[in-house]
């Protein structure tokens, strides 16, 4: 099964719109071991300088956040609690914003996902969280800064799912008023949504 990356222009939409538009799209990672992919079923938006939950809050510019200050459509990967997480850089150059991909529904390469995540996992546990999906797809810190509109790590056209739901983001309890922003989006009733 071959996939065609979407064009760079897809990523040039406001961050909250991009977070919604990514639902249903296909996240693809090609590796030497094979290709694995999954439909994006959950995202979270982080709107940079004014968002206390964002790594770039207050325009914080570090080697880790540097990619967010560049053009949209690139991968921002970072490690949290030993897990690599993947974000889509959004917003115009100089406005460090991003969309975290929180969960995907497996599409291709499921056998590879079991090898990476463990044979004892139930299917819905393979990719139902931001650290789970990167391990299952083979996304690592080496993918930092990669354009998400060309192989080996890219987003391709997906499919239409059921209704979208909105709520507050997860795991940001210490971020003041930002913890209440309704900037988490997911496909209602999908069993791969993280929580």
Automatic annotation (TrEMBL):
Superkingdom of source: Bacteria
Keyword DNA damage tagged: yes
PANTHER family referenced in this protein's UniProt entry, alphabetically: DNA-3-METHYLADENINE GLYCOSYLASE (PTHR10429)
Alphabetized InterPro entries for the sequence: Formyl_transferase-like_C_sf, MPG, MPG_sf
One MF term in the entry's GO annotations: hydrolase activity, acting on glycosyl bonds
Organism of this sequence: Paenibacillus ehimensis
This enzyme's EC code(s): 3.2.2.-
Family label: Belongs to the DNA glycosylase MPG family.
SUPFAM superfamilies reported for this sequence: FMT C-terminal domain-like
Keywords per UniProt: DNA damage, DNA repair, Glycosidase, Hydrolase
The keyword Secreted belongs to this UniProt entry's keyword annotation: no
UniProt protein name: Putative 3-methyladenine DNA glycosylase
Gene3D superfamilies: Methylpurine-DNA glycosylase (MPG) (3.10.300.10)
